[in-house]
Amino acid sequence: MVRGSNSLRVVGVLGSPRTRSNTEILLDRVLDKLGDEGFSCVKVRLREYVVKPCYSCRKCLESGCCCIDDDMTGKIIPLLLEAHVIVVASPVNFDNVSTLTKIFMDRTWCIRGRLKNKVLGSIVVGRGYGLDSALTCIHNWGLKHRMIIGDRGVMGIAFDYGEILSDTRAFTDAEKHASRLAELALLVWSRSFA
Ligand SMILES: Cc1cc2nc3c(=O)[nH]c(=O)nc-3n(C[C@H](O)[C@H](O)[C@H](O)COP(=O)(O)O)c2cc1C
């Protein structure tokens, strides 16, 4: 899915395993807003890709690339490397990010150093427990990559599908988050295109 037509690119990474996902609704709000501000947005639903866990084989330490031949290597990493903004959106599972999100994060070890200065957006959705620690997990991932953390991120409260629509504060925060990501991305990256 591609929206907008700006030279700055956004990748939204969705870590929900569900086809009807609260987290996706909130991610869409952020991507829509960034699209309105002229960014080209792509959404990656991790559940639709084959992404194997990191084997910790350490071959990437020498080669600089991952030896696992799957969609992370072939499709998702190229999108990340071309992006100026990466938004990671995950349901909260046991006070942490979802399994899909964690596998995604681990598989970026092979591109450490190459996400530097990209702007990081963060969204978590849960029924109300451990949202902070899930958000911290995303932020720590970005800090390790020396990315620029957009702000505190967005927390949404929901359990069954659609409940997120009642969390009006989360939608307000999502719009503010998108504005801040846009501001930072233009500050850091727009000169590259002058
Ligand atoms: C395995 C599992 C663990 C969960 N753990 C938590 C949790 O620790 N804290 C919480 O607030 N919600 C937890 N939830 C609820 C989900 O975060 C919640 O249903 C969320 O809306 C799912 O997002 P999604 O619709 O985008 O998949 C858990 C759900 C599952 C399936």
Description:
- The protein is 39% helix and 20% strand.
- The two termini are 27 Å apart.
- Helix 1 (22-36) crosses helix 6 (168-189).
- The protein is built from 6 helices and 8 strands.
- By secondary structure, the protein is α/β, with parallel strands linked by helices.
- The protein has one domain (2-54, 66-189): Flavodoxin domain (Rossmann fold).
- The longest helix is centred in the C-terminal third of the chain and has 22 residues, at 168-189.
- Strands 1, 2, 3, 4, 5, 6, 7 and 8 form an 8-stranded mixed beta sheet that branches.
- Residues 16, 18, 21-23, 91-95, 125-130, 158-159, 161 line the site of flavin mononucleotide (FMN).
List the helices and strands and how they pair.
Blueprint: E1 2-3, E2 9-14, H1 22-36, E3 40-45, H2 60-63, H3 71-82, E4 85-93, E5 96-97, H4 99-106, E6 119-126, H5 131-144, E7 148-149, E8 154-157, H6 168-189
Parallel strand pairs: 2-3, 2-4, 4-6, 6-7, 6-8
Antiparallel strand pairs: 1-3, 4-5
The structure holds flavin mononucleotide (FMN).
Series of H and E elements = EEHEHHEEHEHEEH
Bound molecules: flavin mononucleotide
Mean residue pLDDT: 95
Low-confidence stretches: none
What percent of residues adopt helix (DSSP H or I)?
25-40%
In the CATH hierarchy, the architecture is 3-Layer(aba) Sandwich
> How many structural domains in the coordinates?
1
- The radius of gyration is 16 Å
Distance between the termini: 27 Å
